[in-house]
Amino acid sequence: MTENTENTKQPLPQKQQHRPGELPGWKASPVSQNKKPILQIKGLTKQFGNFNAVDKVDLTVYEGEIFALLGSSGCGKSTLLRMLAGFEQPTYGKIILDGEDIVDDPPYRRNINMMFQSYALFPYMTVKQNIAFGLKQEHMPKAQIEERVQKMLKLVHMENYVDRKPHQLSGGQRQRVALARSLAKEPRLLLLDEPMGALDKKLREQMRLELVDIINSVGVTCLMVTHDQEEAMTMADRIAIMDRGEFVQVGGPREIYENPNCRFSAEFIGSVNLFDCTLVSSNTTQSIIKASDFHHPIELSHDLDLADGMPLSIAIRPEKIYISKERPAEETNWCEGDVENIAYLGDISIYYVKLTDGRIVSSTLPNVDRFKTGLPTWEDHVYLSWDPESCIALTI
Amino acid sequence: MVNLTKEQKSGIAKFVILTAALIFLYLPIATLIVYSFNESKMVTVWTEFSFKWYNALFHNTAIIKAVLLSLSIAVCSAAASVVIGTLAALVMVRIHYFKGESAFVLFMTAPMVLPEVITGLALLLLFVTLGDFIPWFADRGMFAIWVAHVTFCSAYATVVVRSRLVELDISVEEAAKDLGATPFKVFFAVVLPSIMPAEVSAFLLSFTMSMDDLVITSFVAGPESTTLPMIIFSSVRRGLSPEINALATIIILVAATCTFFAWLQVVQKQKRLAQDAAAAAQAAKEERQALLQR
Amino acid sequence: MPTGISGITPTLIRQKIKQRRRRKAEIRNMVHQENGIRQYAVIFLPYLWMLLFFLLPFLIIFKISFSVTEIAIPPYSPLVSFVDGAMQILLHLENYTNIFTDEDGTYLRSYLKSVQVASFSTLFCLIIGYPIAWALATCKNTTRNVMFMLIIMPSWTSFVVRIYAWMTIMKKDGLINDILMALGIIDEPLHMLQTDFAVYVGIVYCYLPYMVLPLFAALMKVDYTLIEAAYDLGCRPIKTFFNSLIPQTKSGIVAGSMLVFIPALGEYVIPELLGGKDSILIGRILWQEFFNNRDWPLASAVAITMLAILAIPIVWFFNAQRKSRERV
User: Fold this and answer.
1) Shared domain check, B121 and B181
2) What is the pLDDT of residues B1-49, one digit of tens each?
3) Please, which pLDDT band fits residue C268 given cuts at 50, 70 and 90?
4) pLDDT in tens, A311-359
5) Contact status of A52 with chain C (Cβ, < 8 Å)
6) Which of residues 206-225 of A touch B (CB under 8 A)?
7) CB B179 to CB A117 under 8 A?
8) Touching partners of B (3+ C-beta pairs < 8 Å)
9) How are beta strands A92-97 and A221-226 bridged, if at all?
């Protein structure tokens, strides 16, 4: 739980204690203990009038990691990023970069550079002049500027477009120039504001990996803001889910997906089936839970630190629910219903099953076999089952 | 009757409207030009072609003096108006909230809409009052006219610069700041090149406004200072004269030349934009191939 | 709960005050966000200039309008004088009473006439300008560039020259009469100069670009799919125009109308050169009082009264401008 100690501000603190499903090797923590923190944010708050855009946020970012702030629009992630860059003045709080509080420094005196969502390239300058701009502000000798610019151009594969103006470049190329420009000054921290926001879908997927490659090859610490969970999952080592100015959960991509700590993160990342339940009994090896939506009880393979008869939610990801026309032999972890709808997405199919009491549960089925027959179809009566390990217990 | 499609109908309508507008706008000007080359002193009866009135014009020292005065006032007013207008536009677009913001906006736009007689009278009374303390205003010469012109021209300059500034992507300025440029540097390295076309338009507009102003200038100018519009006005009031036709023709010629170059600029800019777009499309194609290879 | 006129209740007022306070707190926050002093340096110069050369003069006009003429330099009586060591303030209201109770009603008539001329000119400009702006906004790109420049060009030439051009062609033996007589439409030359007709022509000619430009800007922003949708739903062209096009270009119509109406109301040069003896507009009155009669206080009172008339359209114009700015 090292990740969460820094997330001292817990929106619903009791959740911490009832953390279920802690399986060995699950927690994807790329940050080893001996890495030193590069950026520390303490109690950072931004108020607009009576509204707290960012509310007492604490965060530590370690050297060399890619950290993503994930949230829907208006959750305060951009305000947080702009405070780091120095475009917004925090109402209270500290921003400590390499042990120094930089809250009162103007943007042009911070060793932090940003790649903007719109890339914000200087329209009247060539690619080369754009990249050299930051270096010129430092009054770096000409020869050194030239050398650094060449290095950057090579890094982002833009050697052939040195003298073009931004308007004469494609979207992906503009992004790479913007990246080169923000890396040219070798900042301690690189900020990425919706890095793929301005690209079309096909390019986005390719650019994600390339961007990570470039960032890793330079070894710069990176903090990005995005609303696209896929982007955060593929690019970041750690993710913070933000809602209404607060961090809901901080952790590795896998941890956040497989082990959400509350309903908000469970529902925000991927899709999930949530059931309202009550705890029947719990001991060291198993817990029995009664769901209000179906007859058979849910069984977990670990204990819950909760009094019997207490309400809780059980979250199960659709891909972890098996769908079958045969009734399972076990007494626990299944329910039955009729196929209400099927969404065929090519790689997978999503089944929407209506339970006997009207509740809809989704389950995905990978389309492994091209011509497989005998799959459940519309109106079929089906049985949904899952492993005890697939259930995530969340306190309400 | 021929059956026309909707597009053809509206095309014909547009053609008729625009032609009529052009005739309305240019017929008076065209007659003016034609009669400037007339031998006769009568402005309305054509006798024969001659440059006589141009010759007379170039030997009219009063007019030459007025032209020089007007030109120097216009250049100075336009320069000052562009500076004040740019500052005011920056304040309006980039700083938004401060005490007295709406009063600021009112001051900066009101001179544009107020009747000139009111502005002129107001400025004159101010200069008379100030003349007791500051001798520069007392003789109501070039300085006073310059101040009056800057006051109303900067309102126009503000509007022109403002409309360009609001189009700018603020993150470009933030990017410059992020890369270590001080606010001062940001303005000169990033903002100014982007608003340069607007600065030029604002200068030209202020220049024209200053060159052309009659009413406000008549109020504030002392007996010693006579600008070009004042001389034209007084001679027109005395009656029609072919010399004025010649002068008008020259003014129109200058305006037409400027307009032509402005149009050329617009056309070239559009061409450049199209070329850039083509280059960008080509670059996108190359990029896709490069990505496949990597 | 006591309910005031038009539903203004104490609670509502309290809410408004609260809102305003909140907004002010927000503003303070935002100004703080960047280094304040440098900002104020930028605000300072234009603000100072306008306070000194725009606001101050109006206060002076206002002051002088309460004084009376004297043969002195400057030619008006001081408001504040010292009699036996005591300060005496003399406010003369004669100028205003003169304007409103003048025996032959010259002033009032000229105000009415000015409003009439300005209103009709605005209407004519709108009727002529709207089709031109529409044709400009919807024609091909290349044509638009050329036409736009051609329509702007005359306003880059001298104002007086444009009026002078109309004087030449509206004369008894001018071009218009020549053409009309040659075509046999009239037998003897029309008397056009020094009539109200000439004043209208002059104002429309000179102010048309001020109408066309805002209309053009508004028409360029129109969402033409809405108009197609209206057609698609079976709306007839005229109805579509009033239901769809006019509301969408309202900001342009207001801006254009005010840009014509306000300066036209105080117009001096056009009625002076093209108008007759009866085209006594208020601008001419002000000019005459000032230059011919050298009655500065009366001229000031005339100006203040004119400003009072213009207050409503000016406020309207600013609100329309602000709204269109906020939409951006």
Assistant:
1) yes
2) 567 777 788 888 889 999 999 999 999 999 889 888 888 877 667 788 8
3) very high
4) 889 999 999 999 998 888 888 899 999 999 999 998 899 999 999 888 8
5) no
6) 206, 210
7) no
8) A, C
9) unpaired
| Of C257, C263, C259, C270, nearest in space to C199 by CA | C270
φ, ψ (nearest 5 deg) of residue B38: -85, 140
Q: Give C34 to chain A, closest Cα distance, Å.
A: 8
B151 with C46: Cβ contact below 8 A: no
Overall fold of domain A273-394: OB fold (Dihydrolipoamide Acetyltransferase, E2P) (2.40.50)
How far does B154 lie from chain A, in Å, by closest CA? 27
Burial zone of C249 (CB within 10 Å; 0-12 exposed, 13-18 middle, 19+ buried): buried
Per CATH, the architecture of A2-111+187-199+214-268 is what?
3-Layer(aba) Sandwich (3.40)
- Is residue C74 reached through a cis peptide bond, with omega within 30 degrees of 0 on the bond before it? yes
Asked whether the beta carbons of residue B175 and residue A114 sit closer than 8 angstroms, the reply is: yes
Number of domains comprising chain C = 1
Strands A92-97 and A66-70: unpaired
Supply the pTM of this predicted model: 0.83
Residue B69 lies in domain? 60-239
Per residue in A66-122, pLDDT tens? Answer: 999 999 988 889 999 999 999 988 998 999 999 899 998 889 989 999 999 999 999
The type of residue at C96 is: Y
Q: Which residues pair with A315 in a beta bridge?
A: A274, A392
Query: Which residue ranges does chain A devote to CATH 3.40.50.300?
Result: 2-111+187-199+214-268
A112 CB near a chain B CB, below 8 Å? Answer: yes
On average, the pLDDT of chain A sits at 86
Domain enclosing residue C267, as ranges: 103-327
User: What's the Rg (C-alpha) of chain A?
Assistant: 25
CB contact under 8 A, B283 and A167: no
Is B291 within the bounds of a domain? no
Residue B287 is nearest to which of A120, A124, A170, comparing CB atoms?
A170
pLDDT of C43 strictly over 80: no
Residues of B with Cβ-Cβ distance to A107 under 8 angstroms: 174, 177-178
Residues B126 and B47 in one domain: no
Q: What is the DSSP string of A174-236?
A: HHHHHHHHHHHT--SEEEEESTTTTS-HHHHHHHHHHHHHHHHHHT-EEEEEES-HHHHHHH-
How many structural domains are present in chain B?
2
Q: Which one of C23, C26, C33 has the shortest CB-CB distance to A89? A: C33
pLDDT band with cut points at 50, 70 and 90 for residue A29: very low
C1 assigned to some structural domain = no
Tell me which residue in B172, B276, B294 faces A167 most closely, judged by beta carbons: B276
* Residue intervals in chain A for CATH 2.40.50.140: 273-394
